[in-house]
Amino acid sequence: MGPGSCHDTGGQGPRVRHVGRARPCSRRGCILKRVVLGVSGASGAVIALRIGELLASLPDVELHLVVSEAAKRTFAHELGPDALGRLVEFARHNYPANDIGATIASGSFRTAGMIVAPCSMRSVAAIATGLSDNLLTRAADVHLKERRKLILLARETPLHLGHLRNMVAVTEMGATIMPPVPAFYRRPETITDIIDHIAARAIDQLDLGQPPLAVEWDGDA
């Protein structure tokens, strides 16, 4: 499935607005929008892969990637040994999770926002308590302190009270908790339909100045 792919299923129309491969930011006055994608070890590697693919397809967007050690194992288990390499190819910059001196660890490095997808409960807890023990959680902490958009695709079920309290805490600090819940009202016919919609909705939360990626609901049953 390429960056510009979409699906016409059940007469409902595509789940994701058609986008093509991004062109370099070469015109005069062009300002790149830097977006950080953090990938934790929770299940749902395919969501991270699709988000990276869509972000790479957007004009004037520069993708900065950090993948936790646990996420590398999840990627290999869920998508095979070559999948992580495909995600890395979409990024302009790829940082080791232990590189706490990377540019995205500093508030002076301006970004348009950060998505953590999937976001494990361990990562939610670290972000909620300001525990910046790796580059992913440090970058998330920077986005909170700089009042930038932070979208967390929290992936766990069922949830105990500690999980819920941590999600309340990060929400109170300014993050958006966005569990990767399928939109069944769109009548998805494949897993790809579901993943496309989740990925598009997550990117739309950043409000990058692009037309919405997720096709809007028109009210038809």
Automatic annotation (TrEMBL):
SUPFAM superfamilies noted in UniProt: Homo-oligomeric flavin-containing Cys decarboxylases, HFCD (SSF52507)
One matching Pfam family: Flavoprotein
A GO molecular-function annotation: carboxy-lyase activity
Keyword Membrane (UniProt): no
Keyword Zinc: no
Start and end residues of each Flavoprotein domain: 33-205
Keywords for the protein's UniProt record, in alphabetical order: Flavoprotein, FMN, Prenyltransferase, Transferase
Binding, FMN: G41, A42, S43, S68, S120, M121, R122, S123, R155
Catalytic reaction list: dimethylallyl phosphate + FMNH2 = prenylated FMNH2 + phosphate
Family: Belongs to the UbiX/PAD1 family.
PANTHER family: FLAVIN PRENYLTRANSFERASE, FLAVIN PRENYLTRANSFERASE PAD1, MITOCHONDRIAL
NCBIfam families linked to this entry: PRK06029.1 (NF004685), ubiX_pad (TIGR00421)
Record's protein name: Flavin prenyltransferase UbiX
